[in-house]
Amino acid sequence: xxxxxxxxxxxxxxxxxxxxxxxxxxxxxxxxxxxxxxxxxxxxxxxxxxxxxxxxxxxxxxxxxxxxxxxxxxxxxxxxxxxxxxxxxxxxxxxxxxxxxxxxxxxxxxxxxxxxxxxxxxxxxxxxxxxxxxxxxxxxxxxxxxxxxxxxxxxxxxxxxxxxxxxxxxxxxx
Length: 174
Fold this sequence. Notes:
Elements: H1 4-10, E1 11-13, E2 20-22, H2 33-43, E3 50-51, E4 57-61, E5 64-67, H3 68-77, E6 84-87, E7 100-103, H4 105-110, E8 126-128, E9 134-140, E10 143-150, H5 153-167
Helix pairs in contact: 1-3
């Protein structure tokens, strides 16, 4: 079980940059003195972690990978988050604590701005319709709400974003 105490023995966390760096780890973290010396020679004071396939930073501790944004939460608050961690600016590598928030899956999904795969309009909340028109729509409590038809995808998307401010309480505006 990873604790804040163990985490702080291993890593420094810079609140302003969101970057973790390895500390000189204590000998008690290793089975052999040789491993202790070799690890500290190679890694102490270096930036911790690597990028996952989905773009998040992951750090290996106690034989398993942890996402850096979840470790930042543990480092600062002493417990893992109750829910998901949302990157307010949508940058998966920006792990500054003021950019992170503990939210439900539903609220986290409200902050998604990219269009889904296969969306021909290239705008989230916008569907290409007949006769060169674009429909804006939003889901509110699982029910699709039609926001109207527009001449351009940009107009439809603007309508969608205004509706998000009203209906999606966790949405972070630009």
